[in-house]
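Record type: monomer structure entry
Structure origin: computed from sequence
Chain ID: A
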Amino acid sequence: QVQLVESGGGLVQAGGSLRLSCAASRSIFSYLMGWYRQAPGKQRELVARITRHGSTSYEDSVKGRFTISRDNAKNTVYLQMNSLKPEDTAVYYCNADPRLYYTDTPYDNWGQGTQVTVSS
């Protein structure tokens, strides 16, 4: 596994922006990287994903507002979050997946999470 450390969360008003960072302990060049979130009383859900080729995908509710990116030279993945809504409130987790095939099941390699709270 690669160690992951998320940062950038905090308290923000609705309509505001945050940029989350996920710093990896070593190269993530070959990894499928993702951001997940878990809101109170809900299961963890996939928010955004980026392949080693740079292809991205998003959960419908964040599409057009969030952007996932990666900087392999810095071993870092980002999640730019704009136009934040109260329903975006959750703990956001970074995920690194070394598998070479697509699956809906997340790989068990997570950071510690960073809290994002959006006030109305």
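Annotation 1: The CA atoms of residues 95 and 108 lie 8 Å apart.
Annotation 2: Strands lie at 4-7, 10-13, 18-24, 32-38, 45-50, 56-58, 66-71, 76-81, 90-97, 114-119.
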